[in-house]
Amino acid sequence: MSLNDEALNEDKDTIEEGQENTNTMQKEQDMTQDDIREVDEQEDLINEEESAETAQIEKLQQEIEEMKALAQRTQADFMNYKKRVEKEKSELTVFANEKIVTEMLTIVDNFERALQSEKENSETAFYKGVELILKQLMDTLYKFGLEELDALNQDFDPNFHHAVMQEEADEPDKVIDVLQKGYKLKDKVIRPSMVKVSK
């Protein structure tokens, strides 16, 4: 082999090595680009999964907030129901007491009339006994919330007074005499006072 041939062979080997290196580099570059593409695709998948998970978390948080609001409304409704039932129960008790107390007022009136008719015998044991019974009866009724209406010398008020007579006087629309006491039970008038009114 001549020197030229040898040089040619060396050049050829160098070129082949260069081509192999170029091919290897090209393959590596292709693999790197494939890897980059694959990583990008994986990143996209991860981002999509994260977006889906974030959306799911937001949806669940919204559902939790809705459930909390529903629970609060339900609790408020229950508290309102409980208050309403207690109020109705209280009103029912007052209504039941009202009927009993109203019936008892007739007895009170009779005791007061009996004492009024025997005023000149106020020192007798009988009078004092009836007076004591009336006091005990009234104390019991007061415990249930009965209150006597103050009517004498008050301005006439049809909510509290029932005018059965009128009489000329200096000041009009004043209660000048109470013919029958009026009462209220727990702020409700159960019997207005029967009164004589000035005109």
From TrEMBL:
Subunit structure of this chain's protein: Homodimer.
User: What SUPFAM superfamilies is this protein classified in?
Assistant: Coiled-coil domain of nucleotide exchange factor GrpE, Head domain of nucleotide exchange factor GrpE
Family statement:
Belongs to the GrpE family.
Any one GO molecular-function label of the UniProt entry? protein-folding chaperone binding
Q: Which residue stretches belong to region Disordered?
A: 1-53
Compartment list: Cytoplasm
Tell me if Transport is a UniProt keyword of this record.
no
GO CC annotation terms, alphabetical: cytoplasm
Q: Where is the composition biased (Acidic residues)?
A: 37-52
Query: From start to end residue, where is composition biased (Basic and acidic residues)?
Result: 27-36
For this UniProt record, the keywords arranged alphabetically read as follows: Chaperone, Cytoplasm, Stress response
Q: What is this protein called?
A: Protein GrpE
Which HAMAP family does the annotation name? Answer: GrpE
Determine if Secreted is one of this entry's keywords.
Answer: no
Q: What does this protein do?
A: Participates actively in the response to hyperosmotic and heat shock by preventing the aggregation of stress-denatured proteins, in association with DnaK and GrpE. It is the nucleotide exchange factor for DnaK and may function as a thermosensor. Unfolded proteins bind initially to DnaJ; upon interaction with the DnaJ-bound protein, DnaK hydrolyzes its bound ATP, resulting in the formation of a stable complex. GrpE releases ADP from DnaK; ATP binding to DnaK triggers the release of the substrate protein, thus completing the reaction cycle.
Under InterPro entries, the record lists: GrpE, GrpE_CC, GrpE_head
Which Gene3D superfamilies does UniProt cross-reference here?
A: 3.90.20.20, Head domain of nucleotide exchange factor GrpE
Any one biological process term the GO annotation gives: protein folding
Q: Which Pfam families match?
A: GrpE
